[in-house]
Amino acid sequence: MAVIALKCPELEVVVVDICASRIDAWNRDKLPIYEPGLDDVVKACRGRNLFFSTDIEKHVADAEILFLSVNTPTKTSGLGAGKAADLTFWEKAARMIADVSNSDKIVVEKSTVPVKTAEAIEKILNHNNNGVKYQVLSNPEFLSEGTAIEDLLYPERVLIGGRETPEGQKAVQTLKDIYARWVPDDLIITTNLWSAELSKLASNAFQAQRVSSINAMSALCEATGASVSEVAYAIGMDSRIGPKFLNSSVGFGGSCFQKDILNLVYICECNGLPEVANYWKQVIKINDYQKRRFLNRVISSMFNTVSGKKIAILGFAFKKDTADTRESASIFVSQGLLREKANISIYDPKVTEDQIQYDLATNKLDWDNQVPQQPMSPTARNQVTVMWDPYEATKGAHGVCILTEWDEFKDLDYKKIYDGMQKPAFMFDGRNMVDPVKLREIGFIVYSIGRPLDPWLLDMPAVA
């Protein structure tokens, strides 16, 4: 909404939410989330044609176009628990729109939703319309956290789906005209509603599939002495494959990939396509396997016990340039180490201590077994420290785990870190950020995902 306000100064853009504290945060000088470039865009428009308000009913009633960006988390109970999207907030938003509207509206799906959600929204709106006409469009968002502003200013494509009726196509054109203020016409794709809804799920599924594919290869590379970086470079040179999303790691995270693939799995199951559902389910299973494999490698390398040992965690966000920790591999690895009675010291340049403690203590549902995962116990809180300096976090540690690819980790003084650690000093690089040869010269025992194993590790298999 901030970018639309920036590029269309004649439009009045109002962001509304029922949470007053959240709206207050967006009206302060320090914004509530970290995203490169966002501060400049918001501050250029806020108070001019970009506003943040809790007066939802007034602004919904006045608006001509409504972008719905409510949360669609995975259900944690009931039918479809662990896979299906929870559309509770969507339905409440639709009913509220129907209650307060007294003029025709274009309602735009911005959230990632299951196929045919637009049809459900249409039914709610049209059965409570009081003579008001609605057109529902699908306009999924393809930005990535960490590069969101750049992705919006220079998108690879904008996708708009609508009904194939004169009224539906007119609504599509209205939204297309807004984006056309800064997006070339050939990059604005128009489709029917269902293609647009499914394209977003498919896009995330294909990206996650590539990550799981290269991570599966990383396990084979370690077993055979190949280097996953060299393999990725070689196959990425093939123009039919390309180099993107071929960086092997401890596993993907974030709010989208797992949630959207599980949603896709559930839709396939509901449509009688178990083979297709099982195919996409395997993408998540490989990701879980990769996180489990990394954790087991840490434990097995250190004489099969980390009890009482200090392990430093560098990076808690699910990726660099964001403070978002949702589904971060760091949570899984940290909780696993705590269960093994390790003491962990965590450093991340953007994630707050409150967020870290909350994530480690949160009870999550295991999507595959429908049972709660083991959160951090109250006594385990004493085993966790959060530091604001990477050198303090690693001081006295037996091992270091790099779990987020923050650029600053490339430039750390690893000789200084090594000198302050217990010996033997272990480095577990979950993002292939550091040069293992140079670190071994310093004295580290190094594990890098998908790269030839350190001689120390050859006789210590990590069973996943």
Automatic annotation (TrEMBL):
Entry-linked SUPFAM superfamilies? 6-phosphogluconate dehydrogenase C-terminal domain-like (SSF48179), NAD(P)-binding Rossmann-fold domains (SSF51735), UDP-glucose/GDP-mannose dehydrogenase C-terminal domain (SSF52413)
Look up the EC number in the record and give it.
1.1.1.22
Gene Ontology MF, one: UDP-glucose 6-dehydrogenase activity
Q: What GO biological process terms does the UniProt entry carry, in alphabetical order?
A: glycosaminoglycan biosynthetic process; UDP-glucuronate biosynthetic process
Q: Which InterPro entries does the UniProt record give?
A: 6-PGluconate_DH-like_C_sf, NAD(P)-bd_dom_sf, UDP-Glc/GDP-Man, UDP-Glc/GDP-Man_DH_C, UDP-Glc/GDP-Man_DH_C_sf, UDP-Glc/GDP-Man_DH_dimer, UDP-Glc/GDP-Man_DH_N, UDPglc_DH_euk
A Pfam cross-reference name: UDPG_MGDP_dh
Q: In which pathway does it act?
A: Nucleotide-sugar biosynthesis; UDP-alpha-D-glucuronate biosynthesis; UDP-alpha-D-glucuronate from UDP-alpha-D-glucose: step 1/1
Q: Which residues form the signal peptide?
A: none
Q: What does this protein do?
A: Involved in the biosynthesis of UDP-glucuronic acid (UDP-GlcA), providing nucleotide sugars for cell-wall polymers.
The protein's matches in NCBIfam families, at most eight in alphabetical order, are given as: NDP-sugDHase
Protein name as catalogued: UDP-glucose 6-dehydrogenase
